[in-house]
Structures are given as C-alpha cells and as structure tokens.
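User: Hey, my collaborator sent me this sequence without any context and asked if I could get a structure. I don't really work with proteins. Can you help?
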Amino acid sequence: MAFAVAAIVVLVFLVQVFGGLDTYSGLAKEDQGSTTIFDMGLKMTIGLLVICAVIAVLWALYHMITDPKGAVKGIVALVVLGALFFALYSSSEAESAGIVGKAAETFDVSENSSKIISAGLKSTLILAGLAVAAFVVSEIRNFFK
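Assistant: No problem. I've predicted the 3D structure and written it out in structure-token form, which is a compact way to encode the shape of the chain:
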C-alpha cells in the first residue's frame, strides 16, 4: 500500500512538472526560483512523511499498551539514548573558531543549536561505532559456533 501511494505521488508530481516544464524553461534564470511547479510534489512528500511519523508513533504506543512487559526493553533503550544525548549535549561547547565557527556565524547558528548539532553528530558516531562493533562480534561468535 505504501509503495502504491508513493508511486501515485510520484506520478502526480511528474505530470505537474512535465505539464509546466515549457513555462518553467521560458522563465529567466532569476525568476525560476519563484516558480511553484515543484510545490505539489514537495507538499505531498511532506504530508506522507507526517502521516508515516504519526502512524509509527501510534503503532509504538499500541504495542506498548498491549504488551507492556515486552515494551520495557524499548523504553530502557530510549532512556539510554536520551541519557547519552543529554550527556553529550552537556559536555559540548559551541564552536566559535575555525571553519565551523565561520559557518555558524554565516548561517546564524545559535550557541544552543551548535551544542545540539554537536551532540547529535557525536551520538550518531558513537551509535554507528557500536553497531559496527556488534556486527563484528556477532560474526566472530557465529564463526566459532
């Protein structure tokens, strides 16, 4: 069903884009940024993303309510991830020097946003490292079984 809905969204988007492509091509370069030819596809994609996020949250809540004993592992994992992110956020400092500091100044990134970005990147790298380590350990373990 999800594939069919996404295919319909793509088809509607392509019909709209190809239908207005001549008009878009006829615009001056500086006016092409103000066209609305791509708006429908973007709005439908954002709508699908919101619908999927709501369904994912509702599905998780449903399973937590129907199987609270089995949900304990997921809740513990969320608490650990939250604690990891909070610890990294608390220990992060806003970048103010070098190329990162210059980019933060150029794009008007606040100190709090910089700390959130830093904590998010560090969390992602730590979790990716743990995933790779778990993969390697499980493969070595399976090799000796």
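In plain terms: The chain has a mean pLDDT of 87. You can pass these tokens on to your collaborator as they are.
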